[in-house]
Design a protein that fits this description.
single chain; alpha/beta; 8 strands
Length: 334
């Protein structure tokens, strides 16, 4: 893995010194969380720009819901939904990921300015996907996937979910590499919520180190998912609505960042942007062995607590002493 701050970096994308934040824009009428809210090119572009202003490093644009039982949209409709949004965002300088299982949508989105292809099937849904991405030289997200979420496949069966997801992702990565996608352009995703129940998702989150051992940057997409509803359920067992799971999402984002995730994918950005920055500050403190702050700030704190009379402190600091105990200099309180 090409390391950058211990979490890897992806060729063809900016290098962030912390866990990146991927904002979600669903240009769909039926996504589980926010379907219909941004089902218009103008609204979708505005939403994405708002997410960037709140701290998103890149934006994932999708035109097809992958919720359990969702009916697949046809190719022409997916293209109509996605490509104009990608083009509009790219023209604004936004780093765009396209969330699609179709090679044609990936190709046209990349031509319109997308920088990353995020395929929840890892290239399994469309045999043309891997050759198309390889030909474009684009980065590619390989998610753990056991098929469309229909019937019995909604909840997968595992004897050891971590070992099986790691093994199946490894096999898929090998197939993607054989298809011509460069190793430094591959991202892996454990596929939380895809053919997994709440216990599976939580177990995978508890063992992100095993997924990072695959040697590729790790994307964690937990935002508002069912397992969070299960964790947050009230005494009657009823989970809160998806839009009331954003604080829990931010908590997972902080944990994922602390565990070395390359990026987290979220619907609401602001709290997660704060969470990953706090995680980064803690990493820095662990590395340096001291609290964050510039040398000047540390010097000011040291001077403030240096023994001596007020006049001696004034002489050392070269400034006027003010206040009852002479604690503040000429600049006033900090």
């Amino acid at each position: 893995m090409n390391n950058h701050s211990g979490r890897g970096r992806v060729a063809g994308l900016p290098a962030w010194d912390r866990c990146a934040v991927m904002g979600v824009v669903n240009v769909t009428p039926d996504s589980f969380s926010d379907g219909g809210r941004w089902f218009d090119t103008t609204a979708a572009v505005k939403r994405a720009l708002d997410l960037v202003s709140e701290g998103a490093d890149l934006v994932d644009v999708g035109g097809e819901s992958t919720r359990p039982g969702a009916t697949r949209v046809d190719e022409d409709e997916e293209l109509r939904r996605v490509v104009p949004v990608v083009r509009g965002l790219a023209s604004e300088g936004v780093v765009v990921s396209v969330d699609t299982m179709r090679a044609s949508v990936a190709e046209q989105s990349l031509a319109a300015g997308a920088a990353l292809v995020n395929d929840v099937s890892g290239g399994l849904a469309d045999p043309a996907m891997i050759p198309a991405v390889a030909a474009a030289g684009a980065p590619f997200v390989v998610m753990h996937w056991r098929g469309f979420l229909q019937g019995d496949n909604v909840q997968g069966v595992y004897e050891d979910v971590v070992a099986e997801v790691v093994d199946e992702l490894h096999a898929r990565v090998e197939a993607v590499l054989a298809g011509g996608i460069a190793p430094d352009r591959i991202v892996v995703d454990p596929g939380l919520g895809f053919s997994k129940d709440a216990e599976h998702d939580l177990t995978l989150l508890a063992h992100l180190d095993r997924l990072r051992a695959l040697g590729h940057p790790l994307l964690v997409a937990a935002s508002r998912k069912r397992f969070l509803g299960r964790v947050l359920a009230g005494p009657d067992g009823a989970p809160p609505p998806a839009r009331e799971r954003d604080a829990a999402t931010a908590a997972v984002s902080a944990l994922a960042a602390h565990s070395g995730a390359w990026a987290v994918r979220v619907h609401e950005v602001r709290a997660t942007a704060d969470a990953v920055r706090v995680a980064r500050a803690v990493e820095e403190a662990r590395t340096t062995g001291s609290a964050p702050g510039t040398a000047g700030e540390r010097g000011a704190r040291d001077a403030e607590h240096t023994p001596g009379t007020a006049s001696e402190r004034e002489a050392r600091g070269g400034g006027r002493v003010s206040g009852a105990d002479g604690a503040h200099g000429a600049e006033g309180p900090r």
